[in-house]
Structures are given as structure tokens and as C-alpha cells.
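Typical record was shown:
=====
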Amino acid sequence: MKKIYGITSVDVQTLENNEFFQLMSESRSEVAAFIKENKVDGIYTTKLDEMDKLLEQLQGGLHQTKSSKLVASLDQADRERDDALGTLQSLVRAFARVKDAATKEAYETLSQLLKNYTGLAATSLEKETEGINHLLQELKKPAYQTALAKLHLEAHVDSLAAAQKAFEKVYKERLTELKGKTPSQNKNVRLKLQEIYDFLVDFTAIIAYAYPERTHVVNLRDHLNTIRSRYKKRKPAKKVKEEVVEAN
């Protein structure tokens, strides 16, 4: 869709928190100027109001991250479990074209299981923890153990289990530091912000494509693309790992 409707591609999820906040802020200012100049109301105004509230929450949370060394540790632990999960998923997919019957059966067994955990790394910290722990329990069942052994993937499951254990240790320490508050509030705010941002970008691009004579919308799309292009070069290997912190 992005190619068809002229949206500059950028992996927003892989931006660090400060980059993400800057992208959201710059885009918000562009939309606000568009509304003011063209006296636009409706969906743009509604979404901008929602965006403003979330940006305020995210900014408050970002200021609080600087006081804790555990934030960086939690971020790193989350990255490592994401990498371990992604590696396991990728290695299973690598057997998709193998024609050996036994190998194919093992691949299909694991593939059917892993498809239930697609997108897990992009969810909240707590949901990801729940999902990974559930996956690890499932993988202990005889049928999956046999499949893992056939594909020689036991060590990678062990790596995922170790990464999850390390994450949970740091998570509990951070939870204690926050005196019982949930460490992933910033992450949840960020997910909501990106949902609004993606909607505004897609909505603008579709209108500009359908009605090229509406030059003010075309210009907004182009300005949003210019902002996006400044972040296009940033391509970390995995998903955006938010500094998981407590917002206001």
C-alpha cells in the first residue's frame, strides 16, 4: 500500500524512544499547521487532540527514565529475548522448502505452533512474557520435542528460555523500584500513538491519491514524507525497544 499511495517507507517500531518522540512531535506540528491553514475539522482535529494527550504522557515518562539504570537493563533484556524468539522463528521457517518427509513433518509441526505467536514481540512487556512462557511450556510436549530434535533446534529453545528468565529478573527489579507500578505504561502509550500516527499518514495518502486536485492534502502527504525520510536510515535489527518506564 505504501508504494501505491506514495508513502515513504520507515520502520517506526525500530526507532528509539527519543527518535520516536521527535518523529511524532514533528508530524503533529505539520498536521496542526495543515488544520490551521486550511481550516480543516473532523477526523484530523479529533486525532490530533488524541495525539497531544498521548505525547504529553510519553514526554513525562521519558523524563523519568533518566533516573534509573534498570531502564537500560530492562531494555537490553527485552531486546535479547526478542532476538532469541526471532531467531527460533526464522530457523523454523528455513526448513519450509525441505522435501525430506521427516524434516517436513517436523517443520509443519513447529510452524503450526509458532504461527500462534506471530507479532508477539510487538506487544506489551507483560503480554510478551505471558506468550513466551506459554510457548516454552508448549515446546516441552513430546511432539514438539521430537520436532525440535529432528531440526536440531533444542539449543535455540534453551536460549529463548534463558533470555526470558533474565528478562523476568530485571523486570521484577524494575517493578520493585517503581513500587508496584507497571513498567510498560510508556510502551502502551507509544503503541497507541503509533496507531494514531499510522492512521493519519495512511488517511492522508489515500485522500491525496484519490483526489490529486486537493493540493493541500497532497502537500501534507509530501511534508509528512519529508519528515519520515529523516528517520528512514535508522534500521536496527529488531523491533523498537522502548525504554520501558513509568509515565505520569
